[in-house]
Amino acid sequence: MKTKGDKKELTLMLIPGAGQRVVRFKLRRISLYLFPTTAIIVILGFSLTIYVQNTSYQNTTHKLTETFNGQEKQLTDQLMLKDSELEKLQIELIDLSKQAEQFKARLEEIRKLEDKFSSGPAAGKSEAAAGSPPPSSLSSVGGPAIPAEERDMTGLASKTRSELSGMIADIEGLITSLTESERKLQEARRLKRITPTIWPSDSRSITSTFGVRRDPFSGSPSVHAGIDIDGELNDPVYAAADGIVTAAEYNPQKGNFIAIDHSRGLQTEYLHLNRTDVRPGSTVRKGQIIGRVGSTGRSTGTHLHYEVHKNGVKINPSPYLISNRKDEE
C-alpha cells in the first residue's frame, strides 16, 4: 500500500541563461535512492570485473613465468650439455690429431720397410738412419693452460683432415707398391723352388768332379757329365728342386735313374740308384725323397751320379749346390 510520501515529486529546473526557456524535470522521490543504488551496483560490478581480470592476469602471468623459467632452465641445461659435448668432441679431435701423427710416423716406417725390400738391405738401413724417430706417447709435457678458441679447433680439424687425406693417398700407393713387392717376392720364391740349389743327398763328399777325367773302366780320357757323391747303400736321394718327373727307369749305362724337369730350361738327373720311389709324370717338391743310393748300371761302387742340364746342355752342378735341404724347409 502506497503512502502519500511516495507520491511526492521533486522538480529539477535547468536555467540555461537570460531570455531562454527554463527546463523542468519532475522526479519521483524514490529516484533519489534508485540512482545511487544503481551507481553503487555499477561500481561494484566494474570493480569485480577488474578484480577478476587482474586475478586472471596474475595467474596467467605466473603460469607464463613458470613456463618461461622451466624452458629457460631446460635451454640452459641443453646449452651446458652441448658445451660439454662440444668440449668432448674437441678433446677427441685432439686425440685423433695425435693418432694421425703417430699413424703417419708408422706409415713412414712401413714405407721405409717397403723400400728396404725393393732396394735391398743397404738402402733400407741408410734411409732408416736418415729418418727421424716417431714421437713418443710417453714424452714429458707442460706449459700454461690457454683455452682453445674456435679458430684453433677449426685449424686443427682442417690440418687433421688434410693429413688423413694425404695418408689415405699414401696408403693406396703403398698398397699398390706392396702388392707389386709381394708379387715379386712370390715370384722369387717360385724361382727358388724350381731352381736346383740343394744337395741331392746327405753326403757332401764328392769323389769325382765335372769335366775331363780318366775313365775308371777303360783308363782313357773321357768327359764326366756330372759329379759323383759318395754315399752308403740306400741313403736317401732328394729332388734338388720342384719339378715333374720325366723318367724313372733302368738304363744299362745309368742303371736305375730319375730325370726331373724344373722348367725354365733346367733339368736334373740322378743315376745308379738302388731304387726309384717316383713315377714318370708325377710332381715332386724340393727336398722330397725320390730314390735310394745304389751302384746299378756302369758303376764301380755305391755312390750318386748327379747331373744338371740347362737348355739340353750338361753343365757343372757344383755352382748350384749352395744350400742344405733343411734350409729350404
Overview of the structural elements:
There is one protein chain. The protein is of the alpha+beta class and 329 residues long. The chain contains four helices and 14 strands. The chain has helices spanning 4-7, 31-119, 121-130, 150-194; strands at residues 9-14, 23-28, 206-208, 211-214, 221-224, 227-230, 236-238, 243-251, 255-261, 266-276, 283-284, 289-293, 303-310, 313-315. The strands form three sheets. Strands 3, 6, 7, 8, 9, 10, 11, 12, 13 and 14 form a ten-stranded antiparallel beta sheet that branches. Helix 2 runs parallel beside helix 4 (150-194). The protein is rod-shaped. The termini are far apart. Residues 121-137 have low confidence and may be disordered.
Keywords:
10-stranded antiparallel sheet; 329 residues; single chain; 4 helices; alpha+beta; Glucose Permease (Domain IIA); transmembrane; metalloendopeptidase activity; signal; 23% strand; coiled coil; two-stranded antiparallel sheet; transmembrane helix
